Amino acid sequence: MVKPTSVTNSIRALRFANGEMTQADLAERIGVTRQTVIAIEQGRYSPSLELAFQIAHVFGTPLDGVFQHPGGSTR
User: Fold this and answer.
1) DSSP the chain
2) For a surface tag, which of 9, 23, 50, 68 has the fewest beta carbons within 10 Å of its beta carbon?
3) d(Cα 44, Cα 17) in Å, to the nearest integer?
4) pLDDT at site 57
5) CA–CA separation, 32 vs 25, rounded Å?
6) Residue 1 pLDDT greater than 90, yes or no
7) Over residues 13-26, mean pLDDT
8) pLDDT in tens, 33-63
9) Which of 75, 61, 9, 69 is nearest to 37 (CA)?
């Protein structure tokens, strides 16, 4: 059984804020399957750091604008 991640994300909201981008559109732009995007959005899968940066780049936002951890900022 896969343990859900504690990292949350704003991918769904960002997709809709960016021209209602579909999961398939995002998947194609970052080089993964639609199922991977679904799993990341639902918090069932944590992307690699490289993939997380690619997602943030697609939306033109910093990494912490896409992904959040319940521990909060370390600044």
Assistant:
1) -PPPPS-EE-HHHHHHHTT---HHHHHHHHTS-HHHHHHHHTTS-PPPHHHHHHHHHHHT--HHHHEE-TT----
2) 50
3) 23
4) 98
5) 10
6) no
7) 97
8) 999 999 999 999 999 999 999 999 999 999 9
9) 9
Which residue type, as a one-letter code, is found at position 15? R
Identity of the residue numbered 24: A
In one letter, which amino acid is 18? N
- pLDDT per residue as tens digits for the range 3-15: 666 889 999 999 9
11, 68 in Cβ contact below 8 A? no
**Tokens 């679904």 — which residue?**
38
Q: For the chain, what's the residue count?
A: 75
Tokens of 22: 């579909």
